[in-house]
Amino acid sequence: MTKLDDTRAALHAALVLAMADCGWPGRAEPTVPDQARPPVGWVDVPTMHQAPTERARAVALTFPVFVAFDGSQRAQVALLDAMLAHGWQRLSAAGTQYQTIVQSAGPEDVDVGGTVVRALMFRVQTTVQTQTLCPQTLAQTTTEESN
After folding, report:
1. Helix/strand/coil percent split, the chain, to 5
2. DSSP class of residue 45?
3. In terms of pTM, does the model score above 0.90?
4. Is the Cα torsion angle 95, 97, 99, 102 positive or negative in sign?
5. Is residue 118 part of a domain?
6. Residues contacting 17, CB < 8 A, separation 6+
7. Are 27 and 15 contacting, i.e. CB atoms less than 8 angstroms apart?
8. Which residues contact 2 (CB under 8 A, 6 or more apart)?
9. Can you say how many angstroms the Cα of residue 42 is from the centroid of all Cα atoms in its chain?
10. In a domain, 54, yes or no
């Protein structure tokens, strides 16, 4: 397990709750689904980057979390509004051991198996490493792997 795995699991758990809040239980995936049938949400591949503060140098992950919708324009707007509120609240409170911040959320067009639909993309940042006097690892290695 890595810090990326831990963070993805926590964000997926928060997305499961947000989807259920909006009346779509069982519609959240931990990664991009092979067959996406809206409404559906997933946690995509993060960007790893420097996130310095005044006190320390830090490494952060920013995960894109998507929720895709279909239906009429009016219905999509209502669904986007509901998910924006519930998703922001749930993802902001994601139970990671690291600081989690929803940087932004907004509409995006996404391809779900050949069909382009409207979606929300939440950009969720979590700090996974700070530079201290003792180096930290992002992944645990076993004795066999290090030989």
Report:
1. 30, 35, 35
2. P
3. no
4. negative
5. yes
6. 90
7. no
8. 138, 139, 140
9. 7
10. yes
Domain with 118, as residue range(s), is: 1-68+103-132
Tokens linked to 144: 């066999």
Kindly write down the DSSP assignment for every residue of 100-134, as one continuous string: EEEEEEEEEEEESSS-EEEEEEEEEEEEEEE--SS
Chain segment 86-144, per-residue pLDDT in tens: 999 999 999 777 788 999 999 999 887 788 889 999 999 998 877 665 666 777 777 66
Place of tokens 């004795």: 143
Residue 98: inside a domain, yes or no? no
User: Where do we find the tokens 């980057």?
Assistant: 49
Helices (H) and strands (E) in the chain, counts: 3, 6
Calpha distance 52→61 (Å, rounded): 13
Which residues are registered as beta bridge partners of 123?
64, 104
Q: Does 147 fall in a domain?
A: no
Decide: 126 and 96 in contact? Cβ < 8 Å.
yes
The number of domains in the chain is 1
Angle between helices 3-21 and 73-92 (to 10 degrees): 130
